[in-house]
Amino acid sequence: MLKVLLRKGTELILVLFFVSLIVFFTFRLLPGDPAQMRLGMDPAPEAVEALRNEMGLDKPLVVQYAKWIGDVVRGDLGKSMFDGKPVTELLSEKIPKTFELAIYGALLAIVIAVPFGVLAVLNKNSWIDKTARVFSLFGFSIPAYWLAVLLMLLFAYKIHWLPAGGYVPFNDSPSGHFKALILPVITVGIINSAQIFRYLRSGMLEVISQDFIRTARAKGVSEWSVIAKHVARNALPSLITIVALNFSLLLSGMVITEQIFAWPGVGWLMIQSILSRDYDVVQGAVLMSAVIIVLINLLADLINALLDPRIKHN
């Protein structure tokens, strides 16, 4: 376990270092001057130069990066160039909203994928299996934005059951809060359930073809007992891995869903900050997202190491 922690800790540091490099230098290649955008249309060149100097944009990129990464190590992600709020404060407001949407979406994906995966394995190559595979292919193929717009048109504009978007604080209206959650949760849940189903089905089929499963069946163990006691237990590490991976992808892909449904999470914040060239906010949001994703995958690896002793020695 200690070896796993040390290896994953080293990987975490390297991943965050390269993420910081990529997001810092790539974002500065985008067209547009933050100082000029902040001052509005046709500002005086002297005012632009003075603001660039105040914001530190006149210094070489290497110097800017060194200052920024030094502040990050001390826990300071900077301030928004436009409203002056600390980036940590902005992220602390947005991250819980994104996590709420991601957690509900992941739970819905698991609720859909696991029963269908088990039924597909128990009825391999039957109409149940083929139907489930068709639906998983549908989930793989459709873009999130297309499904989001389709659900919005149907439930919000056609039959008027649910709001088209927006965010309602739970303290203001619990029912309004959960109504606003339904459509984005269905969107991310359906998309991610397809991937979990495919990996779960293939993992269970791989386990079910092994010798110890045939031995259990030869002893007269019922099919449901074989699935519950042997197949599911041995397929659990791969299920945990794919759920963690999908949760990570879900977090990183939340930008589109949050934008469509006007859900004010980290994805929504990143889009607004990119459009306004708010460097520190985008850098802080991407770096924080990378930290969360790496930690989620680290947690999944540790759980798998506990479940499967063979992993401890890798």
From TrEMBL:
Residues 95-304 form the ABC transmembrane type-1 domain. One of its GO terms (biological process) is transmembrane transport. It is found in: Cell membrane. It holds the Pfam family BPD_transp_1. The keyword Transmembrane helix applies. The keyword Oxidoreductase does not apply. Keywords: Cell membrane, Membrane, Transmembrane, Transmembrane helix, Transport. GO terms for cellular component: plasma membrane. CDD domains: TM_PBP2. It is a multi-pass membrane protein. Belongs to the binding-protein-dependent transport system permease family. The chain crosses the membrane at residues 12-30, 101-122, 134-157, 177-200, 239-261, 281-307. This is ABC transporter permease subunit. It comes from Paenibacillus foliorum.
